[in-house]
Amino acid sequence: MNMLITGGLGLLGNAIIKRVQRIKTDKIFVLDKLKNKVRFNYKYKNVFFIHGNFNNLNKIKKILCDKKIEAIFHLGAQTQVLDAIKNPYKTIKTNVMGTVNILESIRSINKSIVLIYSSSDKAYGEVKKKFYKENSKLDAIFPYDVSKSSSDLICQSYSKTYNLKIGIIRCANIYGPHDYNFRRIVPETIISALLKKKLIIRSSGKLKREYVFVDDVADAYYRVFNFLKSSKKLCKIYNIGSGTNYNVIQIVNKINSFFKIKNFFKIKNYSNKEIITQKLNYDKLTKETGWTPKTNFNNGIKKTINWYKKNLFIFKNKI
């Protein structure tokens, strides 16, 4: 089957392409608004790049028709929480209406297309109990979080109303190689350490998140897709987590320990409009697909640091 991946030049897109291209897929089309040869360096014969934006409804419809798309991994989004606070309109337009464009294209062109939508643990809002489960209430407040919960609910609505096959994945914080978003805490800490520049933490440093390695996430996405494709169910929702929960300062200190440096950061609290604590229960995913996280945090960080060491030239002028 021919597959479309939106936001395919990002951290998760890269890992999913590597994971999916191993199966018997005719062609994988990578849609991204960025046109960057450094990022698109795939040597696979069945992977093709399309420059474009999923905010363009007609563009999406044309791709689905021309490329005879049968499956979509919708990963593309505005992912920065602080950017969303500064510009909620752009975030909602991209994350909500961009997702609607994908759904509308499927509804009007080919309802048999399987869609995997990349939601977020942020869609739940602040954790009220020990952890979130898939049936926990979506109770987000802040702009980025609401953009994800809204899109999540819209996907559920389209699935139930128009009988579309949709897998919704609510994932913890992803880290790993090929993350070009240097404003995320893991890459920014690594790059700052490599350049011997003091890191600026743009929060209280006490926000606690769950971290999961990107290759493990890609494997989970593939398993959900494969399960949904052969299932009679129309809509499936899964959490992806790791059980590894750290606050920002702990993450920074753990990464800096690999460079044998201590307290090489400064806290500059730009906003208090963020979720304080998050933790996911992913038992459902394990039970139905057999997935479990394979990479512990130390090993994942080692792999990530090694990649940034080899590719530091890309980021030298960014921080």
Give the helix/strand layout.
Layout: E1 2-6, H1 11-20, E2 28-32, E3 47-51, H2 57-66, E4 69-74, H3 81-86, H4 88-109, E5 114-118, H5 143-162, E6 166-171, E7 173-175, H6 185-194, E8 199-201, E9 208-213, H7 214-230, E10 235-240, E11 245-247, H8 248-258, E12 265-267, H9 283-289, H10 297-310
Parallel strand pairs: 1-2, 1-4, 2-3, 4-5, 5-6, 6-10, 7-9, 8-12
Antiparallel strand pairs: 9-11
Helix pairs in contact: 1-7, 2-4, 4-5, 6-8, 6-10
What is the CATH class name of the largest domain? Alpha Beta
The count of helical stretches stands at 10
Strand order of the largest sheet: 3-2-1-4-5-6-10
Number of domains: 2
CATH superfamily of the largest domain: NAD(P)-binding Rossmann-like Domain
Low-pLDDT runs: none
Mean pLDDT across all residues, rounded? 91
Biggest sheet, open or closed, and with what strands and sense?
7 strands, parallel
Order of helices and strands: EHEEHEHHEHEEHEEHEEHEHH
N- and C-termini, Cα separation: 41 Å
Radius of gyration: 19 Å
Structural class: alpha/beta
Instruction: Kindly estimate the percentage of residues that lie in beta strands according to DSSP.
Output: 15-25%
What's the CATH topology name of the largest domain?
Rossmann fold
Note down, in words, how this protein is organized.
The structure is a single chain. The strands form three sheets. The chain has a seven-stranded parallel beta sheet with strand order 3-2-1-4-5-6-10, with helices on both faces. Strands 7-9-11 form a three-stranded mixed beta sheet. It has a two-stranded parallel sheet with strand order 8-12. α1 packs across α7 (214-230). The chain has helices at residues 11-20, 57-66, 81-86, 88-109, 143-162, 185-194, 214-230, 248-258, 283-289, 297-310, and strands spanning 2-6, 28-32, 47-51, 69-74, 114-118, 166-171, 173-175, 199-201, 208-213, 235-240, 245-247, 265-267. The mean pLDDT is 91. The protein has 319 residues and is α/β, with parallel strands linked by helices. The radius of gyration is 19 Å and the shape is globular. It is built from ten helices and twelve strands. The protein has two domains: 2-174 and 212-240, 3-Layer(aba) Sandwich (Rossmann fold); 182-209 and 243-281 and 296-314, UDP-galactose 4-epimerase, domain 1, CATH 3.90.25. 45% of the residues are buried.
